[in-house]
Amino acid sequence: MYADSEIRSLSANEGGSLPKGRLSSLHHALDILEVLGERGPEVSLSEVAAAAGIGKSGAHKILQNLQSRGYVRQGAVGGRYSLGLATWRLGARCGDAATLAAHASPVLERLTAATAETSHVVIRDASEIVYLARAETQRAVKAYGNVGDRAPAQCVATGKVLLAALPWRAVDALLPPLLPAITPTSVTDRELLREELRRVGTVGYALNRGEWRADVNGIAVLAGRTPSGVPIAIGISAPAYRFPDETALSLLPRLTEAAEELKASWSSAPARGEEQSA
């Protein structure tokens, strides 16, 4: 954002054009985003600087600015860079999010019809999960939420399966120093969480026992990756009183089947740019 004095200065320029230095920085920032998009999922600072044709110090400064706005994220292990969710949100206006929803929505609709409970697909953004698509049950009492909502990854089933796919050192670096007690059942002990994620990685599914919303339980599994390589999870959530562990586990075969449908959907999606060249 520009200060008022900078805006007045810009207005005085012919055509309101950007100063040369700012225009150059803008080009470098766009070059860096393109490098991350083409060479991802993770790229080192040296690789970014070399590919974008700028010095490491300049590349680092631009990366930090982009990271502060969510357009870039830095890995907890190794410090490598990748595109952030802000770029995904912009891409949504060009159809990428619509493509994801188009693949997920039919699968979720079938899953909700078969289970009579709300289902959803999420991705992880740092220590949170973001809901990309949902299919709500027609039952009067249900778990409420909206596409775009966020939740702490360690407090929901979908977040746990995504965290369990990471090395613990990466999880430990992602999470806040103190795990919040959002509900009485939220896991606040790091060693207990580590043990639970180890179990999740072994059995292939995760449960949420009222850890984000005290009256909502859930179950989730991994569902492969999006065409751009982002890991995704699919889950079912329902009011706790009608969704104890036994009920959740009874739906695991149908949830796993939906995950396989979604994986097949992603794998059959055209590669980026393929549709335009066809």
Would you give an account of this structure?
This protein has twelve helices and eight strands. The chain has 278 residues and is α+β, with helices and mostly antiparallel strands. It has two domains: 16-83, Arc Repressor Mutant, subunit A, CATH 1.10.10; 94-267, GAF domain (Beta-Lactamase, 2-Layer Sandwich), CATH 3.30.450. The strands form two sheets. The chain has a six-stranded antiparallel β-sheet. A two-stranded antiparallel sheet has the order 1-2. The radius of gyration is 21 Å and the shape is globular. It starts with a helix and ends with a helix. 32% of the residues are buried.
- CATH architecture grouping of the largest domain: 2-Layer Sandwich
Question: What is the domain total for the residues?
Answer: 2
Element string (H = helix, E = strand): HHHHEEHHEEEHHHEEEHHH
What fraction, in percent, of the residue positions are helical?
40-55%
The major β-sheet equals: 6 strands, antiparallel
How many β strands by DSSP? Answer: 8
Report the radius of gyration as a whole number of Å. Answer: 21 Å
Structural key phrases:
single chain, 278 residues, alpha+beta, Arc Repressor Mutant, subunit A, Beta-Lactamase, 6-stranded antiparallel β-sheet, 48% helix, 17% strand, disordered N terminus, disordered C terminus
